[in-house]
Amino acid sequence: MTAADPVYNATTVQEPKNGKWFIVPSEYLDKWRFGIKVAAVLFSLLAFILAATVYLCSSCPALYFFQFASCAAFLFAGLLLLFLATPLHRRVGVSDWPKLDFSYTVAIGFLIFLASTVFAFLHRWTEREQMSVAFGFIACVLFLADAVIFVKTKGWPLRSKPQIPPEHSETPEAEKLTVRSEE
């Protein structure tokens, strides 16, 4: 213990620790959207696993694109879910979580929809291919349902904030200085 410790201890306020690593509902994620996100992540994982077990492909690029999309959906949506459902989102330098959440969800939903559609039209109709396409479409519906619920509950996140015109953004003190300098 140094001589300076009592000085700093009296003025330093430590952040309260509540010990929670899982915070749902939070300011960015309610229980309904959390459940939908978890289901979407799990269905995209199942779609990827089933597509990865296809042995023979009649259209391999379609299969590979589907595997990429379902794996990306699982990884990115799972990472986003991890950030939104834990205090980790406070430690990352993201200033607009709602915009990021909505953009990721729509982009991933569109990507898995496109990959599922292409794979549905170009596969050989084996049982594993059918199940992976079905799980892909279910994941797509869940991602897009999450986006719709987001818009209905929180509004459109991509709308830009109204800008204050520069002539009205001055403080009263600055206005007084401007008036006096003009006199």
TrEMBL record:
Top-level taxon of the source organism: Eukaryota
Coiled coil ranges: none
Name this polypeptide is given: CKLF-like MARVEL transmembrane domain-containing protein 6
Keywords: Membrane, Transmembrane, Transmembrane helix
Membrane topology field: Multi-pass membrane protein
Organism annotation: Paramormyrops kingsleyae
Biased composition (Basic and acidic residues): 167-183
Membrane-spanning intervals of the chain: 34-56, 62-84, 104-125, 131-151
Chain ranges of the MARVEL domain: 28-155
Intracellular or extracellular location(s): Membrane
InterPro entries linked to this entry: Marvel, MARVEL-CKLF_proteins
Region listing for Disordered, in residue ranges: 162-183
GO annotations of cellular component type: membrane
Keyword Transferase among UniProt keywords: no
